[in-house]
Write a structure and sequence with these properties.
single chain, 251 residues, mainly alpha, 0% strand, binds fe (ii) ion
Length: 251
């Protein structure tokens, strides 16, 4: 009970705790550490010490950890301002790499294995839904990688490009889980009786794991990346306005 209380007050994690104890709260945090570029071999070092060695902002790690442990965790203004937008972009980029290179790859292998045992009609339907989903998610990642992340990196470098703004992303940022849900539903409900249950379960386990991880990913984009970019935009706009005022006054 005390543990739950600590989770909800956010005291479960601190920069002074041992890094090796962080994944005790949630084993998926092992993946979070990897995506932040943190190497294993923590010894007895604290979060702060390990993060310093790996060049990562410890508050960013703790904030992402809280999001993994608590559904719909609402970050405070202070937590956002202490975190690093650069580390969040790195985290999201490495997550994309993981989804494309590992998660989708594994899912595809299981789908192919299952489809190989099905009659032609079922095999075609499964393959079609999977490739529709894959196309959509790759397009989504591609937009973030080629438009959104470079824009944020510019903001982080103190430049305010005038051909994009984070509210365009916020408005158009969609959940990519609708097609994944359709795929889950077909595999769960409509595979023929002759299909091996182990093959079905392998595909479903991959789909649930991916769905769950992607929902945290999207949450981090909406609730961390967007507000941090907005406050960066506001700050840079203010700076630009005051330099224009200075120039006019000095003219
Ligand atoms: Fe993303
Ligand atoms: Fe996204």
């Amino acid at each position: 009970m005390d543990d739950m209380k600590d989770i909800h007050t956010g005291k479960l994690f601190s920069t002074g705790m041992k890094m090796a104890e962080v994944p005790d709260a949630e084993p998926r945090l092992l993946g979070v550490m990897r995506r932040l570029g943190i190497r294993f071999g923590f010894g007895e070092k604290t979060v702060e010490e390990v993060c310093a060695e790996n060049g990562v902002n410890p508050h960013t790690l703790l904030l992402i950890s809280k999001i993994y442990v608590n559904d719909k965790y609402v970050p405070s203004k202070e937590e956002l301002s202490r975190s690093s937008i650069r580390d969040i972009v790195m985290y999201l980029h490495n997550s994309h790499d993981f989804y494309v290179g590992v998660a989708l790859d594994t899912l595809e292998k299981f789908i192919k294995k299952m489809a190989g045992t099905l009659d032609e009609k079922h095999s075609r339907i499964i393959t079609k839904f999977y490739s529709g989903y894959k196309d959509e998610i790759l397009k989504h990642f591609e937009y973030e990688e080629s438009v959104v992340f470079p824009y944020i990196k510019m903001l982080d470098g103190g430049k305010l490009p005038d051909n994009y703004s984070i509210d365009l992303y916020e408005e158009s940022h969609s959940d990519v889980d609708e097609k994944l849900n359709d795929l889950k539903s077909i595999v769960m409900k409509y595979m023929p009786e002759t299909c091996d249950d182990n093959l079905i379960q392998n595909v479903l386990t991959c789909l649930y794991t991916l769905e769950n991880d992607l929902s945290k990913h999207t949450y981090i984009e909406d609730e961390l990346l967007v507000p941090m970019a907005e406050s960066r935009e506001k700050y840079l706009r203010k700076q630009m306005d005051s330099s224009v005022t200075d120039e006019t006054e000095n003219a």
